[in-house]
Design brief:
8 helices, 37% helix, 290 residues, alpha+beta
Amino acid sequence: MELRTLRYFVAVAEELHFGRAAARLHMTQPPLSRAIRQLETEAGAPLLDRSPAGVRLTPVGAVLLDEARALLDQADRARVRVAAAAGTATLTVGILGDSGDPAASRLARAFHRRHPYVQARIRDTDLTDPTCGLHAALVDVALTRGPFDETGLTVRELRTDPVGALLRADDPLARRACLNLADLADRQWFRFPQGTDPRWQSYWNGGRSREGPVVRTVQECRQAVLWNGTVGMTLLDHEPVQGLAVVPLTDMPPSRMVVAWKEGDTDPLIRSFVRTAVAAYRDRAPHPRH
């Protein structure tokens, strides 16, 4: 069994959908289907149940999934250890906020345990670049939030988080159990500078062009609300500092936490980081409240 074919199988087994797996692997579906059928021939048993309802792992496929993950992980570790011995094992990670997220802390600990000799360089970015420097080739991988321009990038969703309106605590709307965007239509919103990714800007402005103070950091967002009485959006589980309040927004889709990297990049360190991130964010424990 070739490592490349095992990577194909893991993608199908995790996505449980040939189309999504093919997109994830940057290939078309027919050669992917042929590779999986060849793997089933080599295994001597079906690995997947295919039906109109979807794709499911067979018991044999579940065993191979565990073994394939272990083999691929060992192969990547071997490549990384060789690079570390040569003094070339570094990974630059872009991070957009959420530094207090327990999942991010779990990811950091797990990645260090897995690769103790790799130097991780962290680039903490503000809210004006949701790709954390990926498009500018300033980082190897980004731990960030969508939506943004994904051209030339591969993006994996890690988790979704509900959002709410960020208000002064003495704002009359702060007493409401929930709000919708229409309740905030006539208010000034904090907004990002011109040139910010329009997809990103639109999401955090509730899909409309807004007027209000320009901000670049999470702290500036909070201060704009506290000092000026403007409004905006924030993660519902990230309760802000004293004097501010967060009220659930019923008509906003949740914010997507994602890991992103350059399309076609086969660096084993990046693959290992992505696998570690998926595992770290699988725990749905809530964020701490401040």
